[in-house]
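in:
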């Protein structure tokens, strides 16, 4: 769904198509729809089938290994019980079927070989499963991160803090274990079949009866499995809510410290943790009760089996011993199948949640465009409008032209639409009306060209854990060391960087912890300038700076005049001194667009005329 826009002619929807990326689409296609008909309108899908399909060879190989391994195990169990029986009565030979007998030593060597084969196959299967698990975990994470990166800005902005982190770090891993639980479940089923078949060959009646009871036990476990699924769903929601609460508190560490609300925060966190823990506890209980419940049923079967054996007068001790051993082993495979089924259902809950999130992220995709500007014609806005989700217009049909190389200040009271205008200028939201930058309609711009053409100095100056140069370059390898240095000179931070221990290669600690607010802000300005943008949008660029740093930054902005079109959202009168013109917004309307001096005169006149009840133009 495209964003709702208000144009001069009223509300209208702007339809946008997906941005293609061959590699991403290929991996998504494999997950989205194995039949090849990609359902792009729903975005990438993740479900059990699409995750397991690419792993079918790996799963099949594990099953074959498991079958062979269990055959070896069955052979081993038969041999040891019969050998034990032979030894207990002092026989030198071990009876197999009918009249076939072998030496005790041969029997023991054969049992040893069976054990070795079982071990080798078990280890190989484990290795194969671990690789498969790794592949699936990587794929799930890649699909999630790509979907998040491809989500439009309005969608990204709505995602609660901590959510992406939790989904990527924990949910994806848990969802990926669906491969191992599915494989183990199937392997358990294969083993069970082999063992039951062997037991059947030895004693058909008793085994047949037991097989029916094992099947019945599986059916009786169903309500418990459903309970597990519900409990895990509750637990996963609780964990997600908890991680969001933690992220919120983390982002407000400063406020918590300053406002002295440590104890209240601790209680707030405890309440949130209580809910999360209660969910996890219920899920744990449900999952953990599978084994004892099954065991209870299984042991009852053994008793029933013996009763039936006694009833039918089975008196061959060797046969009873072997069948009992095989039955016990079969039931333990049955028990493992039930536990794996529980684990499978739990992973499925996480997978469903990821899939649900993917759909949300893929809604309202970022625009696709191919246009690139050739002429530097500045910014032209005609009937520029925007409203958030059907609310009143945040910007209401405004017209303006900004010349190339001009420095324009945007002022206005809080909520007047300054940030909205900045986001429209950056192409982060689709607007009603028309917005052209250097001749290109913003929604139709080629995204690659656009991101090189336009840049931003955000209000929050976030830094990466890395060096100064890493932070200025910001994952754009095409930006040379020379570009990094020029940008830092332009941002007025070059000399301070040179005075750091390793200059541009100085590590800034986690998230740039070793710098002052002003230094961080100027590194963000350098980051914005490093790509040599044609249009630079700044949101309160000097808000964290002292007067001296502010003056340095303003001098740098003044130096950009004529080279870069600069739009500065500001509350600081000093910032307006470097502006050629100022654009004043009030309640989403353009109130003034002209010289700074005229605005000041207008504001003073307006105040004098309208009295104190009228809000000033926030200079
Ligand atoms: N993400 C959002 N969702 C809904 N409404 C928003 C959002 N951001 C801003 N608004 C609303 O849009 C109007 C303009 O906001 P904004 O552009 O942030 O103003 P300013 O930056 O001038 O303070 C305000 O009424 C604000 O409540
Ligand atoms: Mg704002």
């Amino acid at each position: 769904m495209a964003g709702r826009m208000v144009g001069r002619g009223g509300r209208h929807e702007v339809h946008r198509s997906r941005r293609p990326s061959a590699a991403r689409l290929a991996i998504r296609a494999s997950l989205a729809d194995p039949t090849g008909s990609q359902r792009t309108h729903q975005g990438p899908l993740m479900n059990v089938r699409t995750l397991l399909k690419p792993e079918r060879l790996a799963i099949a190989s594990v099953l074959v290994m498991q079958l062979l391994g269990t055959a070896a195990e069955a052979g081993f169990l038969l041999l040891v019980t019969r050998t034990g029986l032979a030894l207990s009565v002092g026989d030198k030979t071990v009876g197999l079927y009918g009249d076939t007998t072998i030496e005790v030593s041969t029997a023991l060597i054969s049992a040893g070989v069976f054990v070795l084969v079982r071990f080798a196959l078990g280890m190989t299967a484990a290795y194969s499963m671990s690789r498969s698990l790794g592949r699936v975990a990587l794929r799930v994470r890649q699909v999630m991160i790509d979907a998040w990166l491809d989500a439009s800005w309005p969608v990204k902005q709505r995602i609660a803090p901590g959510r992406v982190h939790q989904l990527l770090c924990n949910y994806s891993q848990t969802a990926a274990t669906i491969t191992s639980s599915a494989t183990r479940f199937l392997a358990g089923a294969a083993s069970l079949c082999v063992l039951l078949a062997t037991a059947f060959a030895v004693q058909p009646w008793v085994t047949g009866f037991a097989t029916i009871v094992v099947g019945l036990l599986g059916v009786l476990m169903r309500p418990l499995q459903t309970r597990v699924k519900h409990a895990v769903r509750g637990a996963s929601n609780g964990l997600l809510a908890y991680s969001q609460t933690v992220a919120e508190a983390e982002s407000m560490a400063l406020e918590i410290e300053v406002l002295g609300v440590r104890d209240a925060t601790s209680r707030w966190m405890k309440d949130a943790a209580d809910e999360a823990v209660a969910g996890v506890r219920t899920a744990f209980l449900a999952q953990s009760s599978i084994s004892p419940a099954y065991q209870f049923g299984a042991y009852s079967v053994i008793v029933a089996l013996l009763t039936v054996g006694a009833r039918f007068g089975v008196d061959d001790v060797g046969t009873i011993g072997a069948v009992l051993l095989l039955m016990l082993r079969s039931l333990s495979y049955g028990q493992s199948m039930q536990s794996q089924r529980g684990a499978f259902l739990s992973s499925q809950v996480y997978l469903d949640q990821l899939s649900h999130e993917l759909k949300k992220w893929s809604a309202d995709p970022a625009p696709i465009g191919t246009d690139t500007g050739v002429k530097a014609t500045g910014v032209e806005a005609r009937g520029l409008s925007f409203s958030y989700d059907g609310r009143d217009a945040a910007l209401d049909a405004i017209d303006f032209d900004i010349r190339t190389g001009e420095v324009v200040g945007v002022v206005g009271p809080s909520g007047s639409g300054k940030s909205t205008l900045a986001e429209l200028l950056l192409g982060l939201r689709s607007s009603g009306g028309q917005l052209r930058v250097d001749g290109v309609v913003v929604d139709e711009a080629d995204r690659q060209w656009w991101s090189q053409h336009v840049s931003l100095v955000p209000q929050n100056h976030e830094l990466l854990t890395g060096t100064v140069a890493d932070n200025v370059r910001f994952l754009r390898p095409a930006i040379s060391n020379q570009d990094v240095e020029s940008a830092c000179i332009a941002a007025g931070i070059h000399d301070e960087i040179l005075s750091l221990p390793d200059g541009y290669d100085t590590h800034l600690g986690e998230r740039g912890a070793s710098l002052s607010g002003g230094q961080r802000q100027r590194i963000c300005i350098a980051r914005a300038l490093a790509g040599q943008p044609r249009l630079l949008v700044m949101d309160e660029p000097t808000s964290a700076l002292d007067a001296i740093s502010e003056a340095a930054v303003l001098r740098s902005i003044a130096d950009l005049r004529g080279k870069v079109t600069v739009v500065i959202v500001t509350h600081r009168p000093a910032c307006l001194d470097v502006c050629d013109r100022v654009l004043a917004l009030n309640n989403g309307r353009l109130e003034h667009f002209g010289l700074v001096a005229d605005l000041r005169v207008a504001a003073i006149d307006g105040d004098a005329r309208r009295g104190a009840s009228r809000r000033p133009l926030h200079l």
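note: Confidence is low (pLDDT under 50) at residues 1-42, 607-619.
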